[in-house]
Amino acid sequence: MSSHPHADRHALPHGHSHGLVDASIRRSRAGVRAVALALLVLALTAALQAVVFVGSGSVALLADLIHNAGDAATAVPLGIAFALRSERAERLAGLAVVAAIFASACVAGYDAVGRLIDPRPVGDLGALALAGALGCAGNWVAATIRYSAGRRLRSAALVADGAHARADAYVSLAVVASAAALALGVEVADPLIGLAITAVILRICWQSWRTVRSHEPPAGTP
Questions:
Q1: Does domain 10-214 have CATH number 1.20.272.10?
Q2: Gap between the Cα atoms of 152 and 146, Å rounded
Q3: pTM of this prediction?
Q4: Would you tell me how many other CB atoms lie within 10 Å of the CB of residue 114?
Q5: Which of 85, 134, 154, 155 has the largest CB neighbor count within 10 A?
Q6: Roughly how many angstroms between the first and final C-alpha of the chain, as a whole number?
Q7: Per-residue pLDDT of the chain (222 residues; tens, 9 = 90+)
Q8: Pick from 72, 66, 60: nearest CA to 173
Q9: What is the dihedral of CA 70, 178, 136, 112, to 10 degrees?
Q10: What's the 3-state SS for 72-135?
Q11: How far apart are CA 203 and CA 69, in angstroms?
């Protein structure tokens, strides 16, 4: 009976505490799996939207496409952080997420202003509306994956990325609104909606920055 406590005392220093090691590995694998799955969903969404953009030339769709592609790219630093099982790397990954959101806002805003100055016709409005709906669905699925995993794993970076994707699902609906406005003959609506999307992205950037900076998941996290 006395030998068992002695063995337990030496379990942690020698790395034989399987419960602690396994918990860390499980968290790492779960994080990488969630990030990889969300990456696959968003990459596929962006690829399909790119095909539609080539045919339509909509700046509103371009803004949404750029943002979705940037959102997918944030999976790289997040995946590395989870693979390393490092809290510091996870926080740096969260900052990379914020930087990517800000960069996508700048690109989208620049393109929208350029289209206001130099208007161009937008074609295939049915495909444009379909691309917006596709963006909404893809972001919603990715948001569910990231946000649920972030709450479960107590990862502020993953929660911020999930909240970001969830808001993007609604932003993608603006592309559908752009198609409807163009169908009614309001051509200026396309770049204006592109600017509106830019403003929403900047707001998401600020909210994500606050989440990552706090180091804490939202209230109610298990």
A1: no
A2: 10
A3: 0.66
A4: 13
A5: 155
A6: 36
A7: 544 544 444 444 444 444 444 567 778 888 888 888 988 898 888 888 888 777 777 776 777 777 777 777 777 888 888 888 777 887 888 888 788 778 877 877 887 788 788 777 766 777 778 888 888 899 899 989 988 888 888 887 788 778 778 777 777 777 788 778 878 888 787 788 878 878 888 888 888 788 777 755 444 433
A8: 60
A9: 10
A10: HHCHHHHHHHHHHCCHHHHHHHHHHHHHHHHHHHHHHHHHHHHHHHCCCCCCCHHHHHHHHHHH
A11: 18
> Of 116, 108, 106, 124, nearest to 54 (Cα)?
124
What angle is formed at CA 169 by the lines to CA 116 and CA 143, rounded to 5 degrees?
A: 140
Q: What is the DSSP string of 124-169?
A: -HHHHHHHHHHHHHHHHHHHHHHHHHHHHHT-HHHHHHHHHHHHHH
Tokens 């995946």 sit on residue: 79
- Those residues with Cβ within 8 angstroms of residue 55's Cβ, 6 or more apart along the chain or in another chain: 123, 124, 127
Residue with tokens 């399909």: 48
